[in-house]
Amino acid sequence: MGDVGLRRRAEEWLAQDPDPETAAELGAILAAGDEAVLAERFGSRLEFGTAGLRGELGAGPNRMNRVTVMRAAAGLAARLGHGGVVIGYDARYGSERFALDTAAVVTGAGLRAWLLPRPLPTPVLAFAVRRLGASAGVMVTASHNPPRDNGYKVYWGDGAQIVPPLDAEISAAIDAVGRVDGLPLGEDWTVLGDEIVEAYLQALSGLPLGDARDVRAVYTPLHGVGRDVLLRAFEGAGFPAPEVVAEQAEPDPDFPTVAFPNPEEPGAMDLALEAAARSGADLVIANDPDADRCAVAVPDAGGWRLLTGDEVGGLLAEHVLRRTSGADRMVVTTIVSSSLAASIARAHGARFAETLTGFKWIMKAGGPGDRIVFGYEEALGYSVGGIVRDKDGVGAALTVAALAAEAAREGRTLVDLLDDQARRYGLHATAQLSVRVTDLALIPAAVARLRADPPAELAGRAVERFEDLAEGVDGLPPTEGLRLRLAARDGGGPARIVVRPSGTEPKLKCYLEIVRPVGEGDDVAAARAEAGADLGALRDALSAVLALPAG
User: Fold this and answer.
1) CB proximity list for 340: less than 8 A, separation 6 or greater
2) Which domains can be identified in the chain, with CATH numbers?
3) What angle (nearest 5°) sits at the alpha carbon of residue 484, between those of residues 482 and 488?
4) CA within 20 to 30 Å of 490's CA: 29, 31, 46, 306, which one?
5) Above 70 in pLDDT, residue 2?
6) 385 in helix, strand or coil?
7) Each residue's pLDDT tens digit, 191-244
8) How far apart are CA 18 and CA 356, in angstroms?
9) Which residues form the Alpha-D-phosphohexomutase C-terminal domain (predicted)?
């Protein structure tokens, strides 16, 4: 490739860049002769996959920018050939501009385009695809990534995210796109009105909410776009308006009050928890910035307890199955989520499926005779009732509020319901080891080391089975990752570990589960503490084996 080749590619990029800001940035890099920066920007490109595109803003093919987005839109339009595309966007830097560029390219290619009226939650876009009978949808969002990132998520006509081979087909079409300054651009797209939001809110009225409504909630949108839609949803369903955390109420692409705008990250919900403690609230709810995820905290033992995605998933699964009927009902979760959902489905006479990680796979589960009534993944993503064929943080928040109100009417709490499930199905305790790195090459190297030399035991538990997910297991497509099945120890149940690279962030993620039997008269809190200690020991042992420096 060489330095001359890098400069030539950068100059060709600069000649077609319609954005004065990134053009000036790239011009300064060229003038400075910064070969290292040129190599980082032009030595590779953002890969289009089942998560679409996601990366840092800036000039060059390895960044999110108007050229990258216009090429992606042109490739999508070429793969479609006809039909229409719904386009949504969040409040991040560049999102509205990227959405407008997509609309111009799509209509210039002879397709129809609908643009959502303003920054709105991702589930509204996913809902709109099916509502409008579109061939595809695009959501411009980087979800919970850092402030300097943006992304481009693609949905197909079924309202679910794309899966192979569509990603490869669209990627090939993108590769065939020439200079973007030669693309025909249209102007006749349709800007939708508030009726699409009203239709989404009306659809949420079909959720299994019951009739209990007495719940006091504190809510944070984490500087994202969820607030207005969630408040309207609560009002429409008859719930008291949640108290919104003032410091995080307005959309702000800098996300000034959090290190990462992800409710899973330590500290992200601190302001909400402080507000709840002051007001004596019953419940804390948080959305991530594009409101497709939902985090939950509840009072417990004099403080506040953040529920895990698996705990919320188990509670919602049982709630939905208690309020629905039919042998065709299906509950779906992923290979990295708790195995509890399988037991719950079986107890309620429902079908169960386990998929690869990601809602793109969850919503493709089952066959013509299956009706997905609930799907979830441990990363705080839930789809209730099939209204949205993707994560829906607003619908999940409504259903959690209904469940909490119903429990309160009976003098109980969500923690009591979790204890009930532990006694009924065994305590399924889960935890994560997540290592963020600055050098992406460290992640595949760590997986390769573990694959080549798997441990015989971890924290005193024998590794009974080692499964390479890249070879395909349990009838699932191959995926990069490893699964370890560990023996029981000290009268407790077995354990499981799944190790996989993150699909959206520079992280290696490890998912741990221990299942402990709990008798009717046993102290669940004590069992949970013992399981937590076991998980901590497993996490430490696994961390030592991986030997990855934190980024």
Assistant:
1) 310, 313, 314, 317, 421, 425, 428
2) 2-197 (3.40.120.10), 309-422 (3.40.120.10), 426-546 (3.30.310)
3) 165
4) 306
5) no
6) coil
7) 999 999 999 999 999 999 999 999 999 999 999 999 999 999 999 999 999 999
8) 39
9) 436-530
Rounded distance between C-alpha atoms, residue 445 and residue 459, angstroms: 23
Q: How far apart are CA 365 and CA 351, in angstroms?
A: 11
Q: And the tokens for 94?
A: 């560049």
Q: How far apart are CA 302 and CA 443, in angstroms?
A: 40
Asked if residues 72 and 54 have their Cβ atoms less than 8 Å apart, the reply is no
Taking the whole predicted model, whether its pTM rises above 0.70 is answered as: yes
Distance CA 393, CA 204 (A): 12
Contact partners, residue 302, CB within 8 Å, separation at least 6: none
Beta bridge partners of 331: 352, 374
Residue 1 has pLDDT above 50, yes or no: no
Residues 479 and 407: beta-carbon distance below 8 Å: no
Report the distance separating Cα 161 and Cα 360, nearest Å: 5
Q: Per the omega criterion (within 30 degrees of 0), is the bond before 165 cis?
A: yes
Distances (CA, A) of 50 to 152, 262, 308: 11, 21, 26
CA distances from 389 to 87, 267, 356, 362 (A): 16, 30, 16, 9
Amino acid occupying residue 361: W
d(CA 45, CA 40): 9
Q: 445-500, pLDDT tens digit by residue? A: 999 999 999 999 999 999 999 999 999 999 999 999 999 999 998 767 899 999 99
d(CA 260, CA 256): 9
Q: Which residues, including other chains, have CB under 8 Å from residue 36's CB and lie 6 or more apart?
A: none
Residues 391-416 pLDDT 10s: 999 999 999 999 999 999 999 999 99
Q: How far apart are CA 476 and CA 494, in angstroms?
A: 23
Q: What is the mean pLDDT of residues 327-346?
A: 97
* Token pair of 46 as six digits: 């953002």
Question: Can you give the length of the chain in residues?
Answer: 551
Distance of alpha carbon 181 from alpha carbon 186, whole angstroms: 13
Active site residues: 143
Q: Does 301 have pLDDT greater than 90?
A: no
Contact of 267 with 259, CB cutoff 8 Å: yes
- Using CA atoms in the order 318, 320, 326, 329, what is the torsion angle rounded to 10 degrees? -80
